[in-house]
Amino acid sequence: MAAAEGEDYVDPVTLRAQARSQRKSLGRLSILIRQSVRLVWASGRGLFVGLLALQIAAALALAGQVLAVQAVLAAILDLDGSGATAALWTSVLVLAGLTAVTSIIGAVQGHMQRLLGELVARSMWDQVLDVSTGVGLSSFESPDFFNRLQRVQSNALSRPYQVTQGLIAMGGALAASIGVGAALVSISPLLLPLLVVGGLPVLLTSRRESRLEFDFSVAQTPVLRMRQYLTLVQTGRDEAKEIRAFNLADWLHGRFDTAYGTYLGALAHHLRRRATLSAIGNLGSAVVLVLTLGALVWLILDGQVTVAGAGAAIVAIRMLASQVQTLFAGVQRIFESGLFLEDLQGFLRLAEPAKEDAHGPEAPTGFGAVTADDVHFTYPGSELPAVRGATVELRAGEVVAIVGENGSGKTTLAKILAGLYTPDEGAVRWDGTDIRAWSLASVRSRIAVIFQDFVRYALSAEDNIAIGDVSRPPDPARLRASTRAAGATGAIESLPDGYATPLSRLFAGGRDLSGGQWQRVAIARGYYRDAPFVILDEPSAALDPRAEYDLFASLRHTLEGRTALFISHRFSTVRSADRIYVMAEGRVVEHGTHDELMAADGQYAELFSLQAAAYLNAEQA
Ligand SMILES: Nc1ncnc2c1ncn2[C@@H]1O[C@H](COP(=O)(O)OP(=O)(O)OP(=O)(O)O)[C@@H](O)[C@H]1O
Asked: Taking a C-beta distance cutoff of 8 angstroms, is the pair 191, 317 a contact?
């Protein structure tokens, strides 16, 4: 597993600096448009082409409307002429028909855009989920990663839809502008340049607005994450009991209000700045529009255009102004989304090291011995190493235990042995070969790990166990054997729908299990995976002493020759292990069999006696 953090991690400050240095040139716009078209094309090319075709049809209808207005006005001014009434009605009908066609096209486009937007969103989600499930586990220790994930979820994912809309609006507005512009030129060529200049103020201010929007989003991500977290805490099922027991409701609510208040204050400030900028842009456009209309009046007075032509020109000017605005709004959307898209692209690149995990030769299907050879590991962002020079060995078929006090590094060492963290120094080897020589995905497929904080999936009991090996279709016989070996048969068979019962009250007919029953389900999940190496991280913490004893006593039989690493706090449980490693402060301080360690009279003997005495005292009390 290559650590995902590295040059691809960009902190918010760097991101803002990058945003400031972004060039907003035509060259950049064309790059963004190319990227966006590729994205939309890959998600739904049929719809995209259909939408563009409709845009062209709408543009033609719009240009036709200008000419029809001119014809209607000319017919009105010529009403006393012979056949003028028929000409008037014909042009009115054409105008009405074209107007209806434009509206119908608009409505159909709306529906198609919505669908295309969803297709784009789905393809983006697919990629984002690939990253979040594919990046190295250590990414989840990094606040940078979470900030980025949050930004991508809350912002970047909606941007491709905006880009889609922006592109289509731009295409349509461009086609319409050309159509209406051509109609306008046929009335008087002098009017066109003035109108194009009219759009410039909006373009200039919109560039600045997009930068403001991006800066705002980057700056607000940590506050938004905190707010979201506080919402989750106050609405979560697991947290509900503690919130009541500790009377935390008002306190948490206060925190939430403060976080929201901070965000709202910043949002109001941000929106004022955006509103001011867009007002400046629109006022500039309005001034240019007045100049254009003035020019038109002058052309009429000068006799260069007819009154009918001038009437049609006014309609065209209004249409063109709105098309130019749509065009620039499209450009703005693409610029605005550009920074987010780059952020998103950077995020998607985080999956590349994960893809490398699948490369390389397949790991062997078994081993003679697994060793962690003088491994060191420090969590990203931590100063102190969690594991500092630990060496352990597990020979095939052995049951090996790691014991030690809280925080001594047991779980971290287990995750290193499971190939989930790459040691900073030292190596995990199978028969002398560093596991990094093989595809890490294939190494992990040979290992079954039951974590201390295993996941309670809100799925059926069957799924909760069969999830241990999704590489093949569920095997009912294996499922039942694993359940039996983990001692979970009774709990599952007494559920209303047995194995089909959802293990969560979130779903109709669902049931929850007790902590110990859940733990047995998790153990069954580990047994179900046909792996030569099984890691059980405190699998007995929620079990009663008899169940714990049974679990360990039956372990060898259940494992049928597989190798097991067993982490526990209860020394009495592990006394029959082939070898016991005692960890303290990230190091292995002692190892041997129970008898050897007791004879050595070191830390193990001390902790064992302490626990035994506590147990005896408790029994006597
Ligand atoms: N995700 C993490 N990020 C940073 N530090 C961590 C993380 N997980 C554990 N640590 C630190 O690493 C050290 C070893 O933790 P580890 O979970 O491996 O200990 P452990 O022996 O399994 O403890 P326990 O018996 O409480 O489960 C501790 O000091 C802990 O604070």
From this structure: yes
